[in-house]
């Protein structure tokens, strides 16, 4: 059975920091990361979706964690087709417009987009060199629906990522990618380009609900992300959409799926994105206990 790593989608979430999970001795960024890495072997860096990371941060993250600790990193929003705040781009690359306005990659000069890819990759290099970079999560927006044009865009993104030497995981937010008539094609698309197709847990029965499809598309890696089961998934703000405290029964239903993925891959990453207080770390601890 492959190695299963469990963790959360942030170690710096303000609600977690204020929630009492960290001891009083972990009073700064270094102390909190060292404490987290002493408890879990995996974390996802979510902040890189909202702004480009820096080499300095990658160097510090590698220095402050033990050998074997893994960082999954979420791709910057511009790289996966999301509308991106102009103010989140480096000053030298910003187009005219208010900092809060949003722009997509297609509206920028190709050289600018290429430079964003280059800077993102350069910032991750210290993690990769230290053997701490797990998967780069390529999460595509809900507006990306299955079809030839969308599949071509996904293929282009994954090919670029592969050329940069990244191990990738791909997650779709439109549930049609996981529908019975489409799922095999979605899994094939991910597998052809060396990406793990992310298995997702969300609330069921909503228009935006993503089915809990768990298939191994590459032999190296499988990824499972738990977003919580809020009835506001896909419609509410972050606090509402991700607010959920998993029960042991809800988690236990995933144990056979995770173990099946572990039998087919070298490593499984299980990540909890149900923010608000210590809900994510509590769920991760409970899942570790259930997996034994």
UniProtKB/TrEMBL annotation:
<dbReference type="InterPro" id="IPR036520">
    <property type="entry name" value="UPF0759_sf"/>
</dbReference>
<dbReference type="InterPro" id="IPR002763">
    <property type="entry name" value="DUF72"/>
</dbReference>
<dbReference type="Pfam" id="PF01904">
    <property type="entry name" value="DUF72"/>
</dbReference>
<protein>
    <submittedName>
        <fullName>DUF72 domain-containing protein</fullName>
    </submittedName>
</protein>
């Amino acid at each position: 059975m492959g190695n299963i790593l469990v963790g959360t989608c942030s170690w710096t979430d303000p609600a977690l920091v204020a929630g009492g999970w960290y001891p009083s001795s972990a009073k700064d960024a270094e102390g909190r990361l060292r404490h987290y890495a002493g408890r879990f072997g995996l974390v996802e860096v979510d902040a890189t979706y909202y702004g480009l990371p820096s080499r300095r941060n990658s160097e510090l993250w590698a220095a402050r964690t033990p050998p074997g600790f893994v960082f999954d990193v979420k791709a910057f929003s511009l790289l996966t087709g999301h509308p991106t705040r102009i103010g989140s781009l480096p000053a030298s690359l910003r187009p005219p417009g208010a900092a809060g306005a949003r722009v997509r990659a297609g509206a920028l000069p190709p050289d600018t987009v290429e430079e964003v890819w280059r800077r993102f990759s350069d910032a991750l290099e210290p993690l990769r060199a230290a053997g701490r970079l797990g998967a780069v999560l390529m999460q595509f927006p809900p507006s990306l629906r299955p079809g030839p044009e969308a599949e071509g865009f996904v293929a282009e993104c994954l090919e670029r990522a592969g050329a940069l030497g990244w191990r990738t995981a791909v997650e779709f937010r439109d549930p049609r990618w996981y529908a019975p008539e489409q799922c095999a094609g979605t899994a094939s698309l991910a597998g052809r380009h060396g990406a793990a197709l992310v298995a997702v847990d969300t609330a069921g029965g909503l228009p935006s609900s993503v089915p809990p499809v768990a298939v191994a598309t590459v032999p190296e890696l499988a990824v499972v992300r738990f977003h919580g089961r809020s009835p506001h998934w896909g419609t509410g703000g972050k606090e509402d959409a991700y607010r959920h405290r998993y029960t042991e029964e809800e988690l236990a239903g995933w144990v056979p799926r995770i173990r099946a993925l572990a039998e087919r891959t070298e490593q499984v990453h299980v990540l909890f994105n149900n923010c608000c207080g210590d809900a994510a770390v509590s769920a991760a601890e409970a899942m570790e206990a259930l997996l034994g």
